[in-house]
Amino acid sequence: MAMARSSSGPAYPERFYAAAAYAGFDGSHNSTSNVSSKFQNDTALLLYALYQQATVGTCNVPKPSSWKAVEQSKWKRYVIWRTGQYCFVLCIPVCIWVKIVFFSFSCSKQEASRILEAMLLYNIDSALWQGLGNMVSTEAMRLFVKILEEDDPSWYSRASNSISEISESAVDTQVNHYSKDEAIINNENSFPETKTISTEIGTLVETQDKDVVSEVVGTVVVYDQWAEPSITGQPPKARYEHGAAIVQDKMYVYGGNHNGRYLNDLHALDLRSWAWSKVNFKVENESQEGQSPAKLTPCAGHSLIPWENKLLSVAGHTKDPSETIQVKVFHLQSCTWSTLKTYGKAPVSRGGQSVTLVGTSLVIFGGQDAKKSLLNDLHILDLETMTWDEIDAVGVPPSPRSDHTAAVHAERYVLIFGGGSHATCFNDLHVLDLQTMEWTRPTQQGEIPTPRAGHAGVTVGENWFIVGGGDNKSGVSETAVLNMSTLVWSVVTTVQGRVPLASEGLSLVLSSYNGEDVLVSFGGYNGRYSNEVNVLKPSHKSTLQSKITETPVPDIVSAVHNVTNPTRDVDSELEVGQEGKIREIVMDNVDQESRKSRDERTSLIATLKVEREELDLSLGKEKLQTLHLKQELADAETRNSDLYKELQSVRGQLAAEQSRCFKLEVDVAELRQKLQTMETLQKELELLQRQKAASEQALDANHRQGSGGVWGWLAGTPGGQKRDDA
User: Fold this and answer.
1) Which regions span the lipid bilayer (predicted)?
2) Could you tell me which residues come within 8 angstroms of residue 226 by beta carbon, excluding any fewer than 6 positions away?
């Protein structure tokens, strides 16, 4: 984490000498007494030790032999307590020292104060000086001023009258301090090594255990280390997924995402004065007169491209997305936004894509559309004709992804690295040859970066710097660089903790100062939104740009480059003034003084051509086999379709049979019901028949009785008599 910037005033070492004079250090033997009269005993002792360390160096004064064992033990405990209070002296977290002091020792502050008084009385205040070990003078100066400011924040305003006198004396001793630093750096000690570099940008103090170097009054730059410069003006709102571009020593920042809200503001950072300013702009209204003024649609995940003193904002996520990609242009002279009219079939709207400027064309790859579908399509926009062209490149393209980075090498090759899908992140590298429109996936070498998405990249000659990003779990801490000719990765530096440089959605641009390249990062999100600016000055010499020949074999070309184009040849060309010469990676770097070297290169190129022919032959066989497999797959799909149709027919017949069976079951149920009704009727019929039979029998009986009376009358027996007898 970057330390807080000190209050305004002169730069080091002048600031230190002003503070020392104010505190009472005049070089006399009474310095300790003068300081003790202004400050408390513990503060005075620490200031004295740091002053001696800064001006004299490591303490060689032996400890007083009159000290008793108890006094030495108490003094040792106090030093631990004091270094715990000022933990930056040993660069160790306070929590560790608190445990040591309050759980392992019993020294109280009152007891320590009494010990200090005794030390001042016996002039034994060199003990704490000895405790500083081999701390370099620049670090001691910084700590001295910091402790003074903590004790007396207004010291500089009181001592401003004497600064001019102190500055003169400071010049004489400054050389000695830096020479002592160099000597101390070579010694083995427990304190972090300090590097100081003085440039026209400012002075930078950096320790090995610091993540981001903090500037000390003025802008500071250390090679291959990130620094947070001193910036004035109102900074933009913290954000990520914004666009950034450099035009005429100014970094423009447009749009972005803050707490899920898309932004449409435009800010500029002057890289000479390091001052922020907000750009007030107008928006051209393409509608009819009398309507409301046009508004600039907020967006995030877009790409900001500098082009002909203009800024092009390409694509991006919006609240109400359009059907196709929109290209907006900002005119720097008139401070006006407008929408470019393009022709041809424009790509679907998206965000998180990569946009690479190659000559007068924009190469757009991948991204995520409004429906959150990942893309891996390839489109080119000709900025001269404003015409879109969809490219159907050969080879295997990168898988659908967004939040990746892209770079152009030798105005012919577009490199795609990293990115993420809905489930994972990538660290693969793909190369598109713009002449043959062919995708390849070369073999990476060196310290290959871990999978990441949301990172930022910028090219410096043949070197492609990659910063930040994340893997859905944590931010990436290292700053990596790829040599695009050899395809070898290396790590430039690493930061620690949750700092903006280890976040997603940050921006990275390339600027220059006094002919040296400077990387500038801004913003990002790693659990919190950031609006910090960090700079890094790469130490790589990359003033010459490489040009790849017509042979599109990146892996083989890199091997040739290692043989025929070493760094020392580039340095020798620079020394003889051939900075403007453009060299080719395979053939153009011919040493005219050595014909043998040329023959070796010619032989090597011939060998490479033979190998390429063999590879082309193998590729042709693979393509033929692929076509055969595709045909078999098509036949299998046809058979599968026929079987599916047959299955559907059988399913239809089965459904018809099931319907018929259901109808039969209904008919059977009806017949059963009718049968039960017939059985009931049969029983009733039998009952009626029995009743009929009984009636017929009764009728027969009566009939027979009537027949007996007739025969009796014929026999002479009258019927009346019989009734009387009865």
Assistant:
1) 86-105
2) 211, 212, 213, 479, 493, 495, 501, 521, 534, 535, 536
Looking at the predicted structure, is the pLDDT value of residue 477 above 90? yes
Mean pLDDT, the chain, whole residue set: 75
Write phi, then psi, for 614 (nearest 5 degrees).
Answer: -65, -40
**What six digits make up the tokens of 196?**
């100081």
Same domain, 530 and 632: no
| Residue 525 in tokens | 């999100």
User: DSSP letters along 77-124, please?
Assistant: HHHHHHHHHTGGGTT--HHHHHHHHHHH----HHHHHHHHHHHHHTT-
Q: Which domain holds residue 14?
A: 10-59+111-151
State the average pLDDT over residues 17-30. 72
**H helix runs in 295-402, sequence order:** none
280-301 confidence digits (pLDDT tens)? 999 987 544 444 456 899 999 9
Measured CA to CA, the distance from residue 86 to residue 488 in angstroms comes to: 44
Q: What is the pTM of this model?
A: 0.51
Average pLDDT (655-680) is 90
345: helix, strand or coil: coil
CB neighbour class for 76 (10 Å; exposed up to 12, middle 13-18, buried from 19): middle
Q: Exposed, middle or buried: residue 644 (CB in 10 Å: 0-12, 13-18, 19+)?
A: exposed
CA separation, residue 145 to residues 9, 91, 163 (Å): 11, 17, 14
Residue 520, CB half-sphere, CA atoms under 13 Å: how many? Answer: 28
Residue entry with tokens 């930022």: 456
Q: What are the b/e assignments for 468-501, b being 16+ CB within 10 Å? A: bbbbeeebbbbbbbbbbbbbbbeebbebeeebbb
Distance, CA of 345 to CA of 351 (rounded, Å): 18
- Say yes or no: 137 and 230 in one domain: no
Residue type, 569: D
Residues 338 and 468 in one domain: yes
- Measured in residues, the chain has a length of 726
Which of 40-49, 179-188, 212-221, 525-534 has the least mean pLDDT?
179-188
What is the β-pairing status of strands 275-278 and 261-270?
Answer: antiparallel
- Is the pLDDT at 433 greater than 50, yes or no? yes
Please give the radius of gyration of the chain, using alpha carbons only, rounded to the nearest integer. Answer: 47
The reply to whether 522 and 428 lie within a common domain is yes
